Amino acid sequence: MQKQKSNSENSREMSIAVVLISGGLDSCVTAAIADQTNDLAFLHVRYSQRTEKREQQSFRDICRFYKPKHRLEIQMKYFSNIGGSALTDKSIEVPEKIQGKTPQTYVPFRNGNILSAAASWAETIGAEKIYIGAVEEDSSGYPDCTEEFLRKFETAVNAGTKPETKIKIVAPLLHYNKGEIVKKGIALGAPLHLTWSCYQNERIACGKCDSCRLRLKGFDLATERDTISYA
């Protein structure tokens, strides 16, 4: 269920919003929200993560669904050289449960890197907003998914771009839990069946990693059925 432009929207060009699309549940619902009031520019980043090809497939499927005005795929392969995360270093096992305050699946300052690239692209194409599917309330505890981080990063972006550039970082799901995210997505007609959340597998979701557990919890809380396949 994509947006129907009002007469006022048809009479003027809507502002462009860069939307970070990982291929996962949260970014898809974020795209559905951004789609209501903006022209879309979808950005996908491959960073040598375990499920890189599957996430790229989801991104392209979501693009076919929403038909964004702009789309861009970029690579940040250096994350595999940096290491320090179970998602980019195959010598580190993906945990089935969160252990400690910051889990092994945290990719060091990933969102800072991705938002920097998004800011560069936003300035180039004249976008006024960057949408990110960060979730603070019901997430894995990543430090770069917090309201404090996003507000401070927005300040840095506007300090480091041209004086006429004004970019707002929007995280509409920041204080949602996973059940609320699923409900919001269904209400907006987001193609949740096209998304991928598993940290380990690319064909059939493992159902055991932290991301799969959070996703399944969300569908359970929303009393909805997840249609992707699980081992």
Give the terminus-to-terminus CA distance: 30 Å
By helix and strand content, what is the structural category?
Answer: alpha/beta
**What name does the CATH topology carry?**
Rossmann fold
User: Quick one: overall form?
Assistant: globular
SS element count, helices = 8
User: What is the helix content?
Assistant: 25-40%
Q: Order of helices and strands, N to C? A: HEHEHEHHEHEHH
Largest sheet: 5 strands, parallel
What is the CATH architecture term? 3-Layer(aba) Sandwich
- The residue-averaged pLDDT reads 93
Please report which band the strand proportion falls in: under 5%, 5-15%, 15-25%, 25-35%, 35-45% or over 45%. 5-15%
Task: Write structural notes for this entry.
The chain has one domain (14-221): Rossmann fold (3-Layer(aba) Sandwich). It is 37% helix and 11% strand. It contains eight helices and five strands, in the order H-E-H-E-H-E-H-H-E-H-E-H-H. A five-stranded parallel beta sheet has the order 3-2-1-4-5, sandwiched between helices. Helix 2 (25-34) packs across helix 7.
